[in-house]
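Model it.
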Amino acid sequence: SAIKKSAVIKVYPMASITINQKGRELSDIEGLSPLVKGFSDDGKGVEDLNLLKEAMIRVKEADNIISSHAEALGYGFSPEAEYIAVERELELAKKTGVRYHFCHLSTKKSFELVKQAKQSGVDVTCEVTPHHLFLNEKDIKNANYKMNPPLRSEADMEAAVEALLCGVADMIATDHAPHSKEEKAMPYDIAPCGIIGFETMFALLTSKLLLKKLCTMEDIIRWTSINPAKRFRLPDPELKEGADADITVLNLDKTREYMIDEIASCAKNSPFIGEKLSGFPVLTLRGGETVYNAKEELWQKDC
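Modeled.
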């Protein structure tokens, strides 16, 4: 497989909910379930609610999980597009009892709905992204700030932070989406959505939450490692004797500017270029073997 051939860290596949993510016919949920860690139509919501309900029933029977890009058609990129989808999907999740996860939530209303659902016993979790935690619509300068869901209001940004700190949001995901320089140089309205985020996630959390004493390192580990592993039934990430030595070392002492020419990704579409941050990764081990060393630049660029 492509994962075995080229991945230098552990990668776990997910399957689409519908065939070719077209939203018309369900994938072979029963056949795929033993091979994947969940089902998702990625950047698309399943608009046919009867089809989505059937997917929930079959995924529950297969003892698996659905990850949702909550976006109701007909509302553009508005906050309503997200929270209307969240509300109606939560109703179905409550009826079917499926394990359900919301990707990259970004509105205050969405977090309120998830909080209420959790309190009523729905088996639901959700995530936030670093860009929705630390940027809002006032920060937009160019297409490197364009993503879906988009940057929201300052109040929504503050609600995302609050949701994370109080436990409504269970984990952090980058929603990493690389695009070429040429694509992102297009006018904002027609440029593609998406930014990279793998290389700045820990530096942003360290700089904007940990060093400001809004959270602890244990919180960051829980949001980025322990909770995702539990929810998606990945191997136990705890550092203990006998466990796989999958470790990332961060430098919490050094603050420096994030530079475009250090980006290991072939894509450079980050809104955080030029920010002064602490907590960058300096060493990564996979199974005890060094796969990244900032000093030696062991990673290889193919671009």
